[in-house]
Amino acid sequence: MKIIDAHCDALYKLQLSKRGKIYGVKPLQFKNSPSLDTNFNRLKQGNYMVQFFALFLEPNIPTYEKWDYLLEQIDLFHSEILANNPEMVHIKKWEDIDKLEDDQIGAVLTLEGADPFGNDLVKLRQLYREGILSIGLTWNHANLCADGAGEPRGGGLTLLGKEVVKLNNAHHVFTDVSHSTVKGFWDMIELADYPIASHSNARAICDHPRNLYDDQIKALFEKNGLIHVVFNPPFIKQDSKEATIADLIKHIDHLCALGGVKQIGFGSDFDGISYYVDQLEHAGQYENFINELLKHYKEDEVRGFAYQNFLDHRPGL
């Protein structure tokens, strides 16, 4: 069964390795480096249709360097992921997914945190032209657009943040709520035409600030939005660094009970997590997850989780 995965941090790892900050002096190779959960060979093994690649910067990078760091990650996307792996195809418009051949894997660029463009909307427009198709206004900290999930103040969107959401709407780009505060979530739900939680779970099952309360989930579904479950054990099982596929399926069960069977997807957060679901440690092991889901759900429902729900709820359709 084909897979669409809405979040990974391979570009962040590739940049760290290029700068010699991890894995010794040799830069990672996207094709086959075992240190990459989402390397090309594993995407092929996992039968991927599309992988979303997040542009993410550590918060301690000086503000004046953030745009250059972002451009370097975009360059790695083109030079390391696309140029060295001809079967990887850049998805710059949502309809490009429909043109993929069976042996090709679509690659979508997303932005995790508005920090790199600051309050410069010219830079934001450059990112739209580059093919950014989903934008989360924050990571865990505050920036000029909003507070993030880890910001004690818990504020919502600024006037700039609201303008960014409106621009996302105009460009048929997702507004990602996964790292938002509760107040920020409600601000985005009010304004966003295309909301998505790219890598979040149900807070009723695991009470973590990165997960969503039931009223948030229902509002997301009512707005025709998507929630893609995340494979990070601390977001799956309360106060735990270990989780099983059965633990993860409890979140899907809960989301279905809230009416979301047609709006659930996957957002692994591979390459951005330090702990793993047993038997779901990298992109090549997706079959283990699919096989277990087929024991609990009808095949067409599992196909929806895997890719069809996303295709049915793409912006602009």
TrEMBL record:
The record's InterPro entries line, in alphabetical order, gives: Metal_Hydrolase, Pept_M19
PROSITE patterns on file: RENAL_DIPEPTIDASE_2
Question: CDD domains in the record, alphabetically?
Answer: rDP_like
- Which superkingdom heads the taxonomic lineage of this protein's source? Bacteria
BP terms from Gene Ontology: proteolysis
Q: Which GO terms describe its molecular function?
A: metallodipeptidase activity
Task: Name it.
Answer: Dipeptidase
Q: Organism, per UniProt?
A: Cerasibacillus quisquiliarum
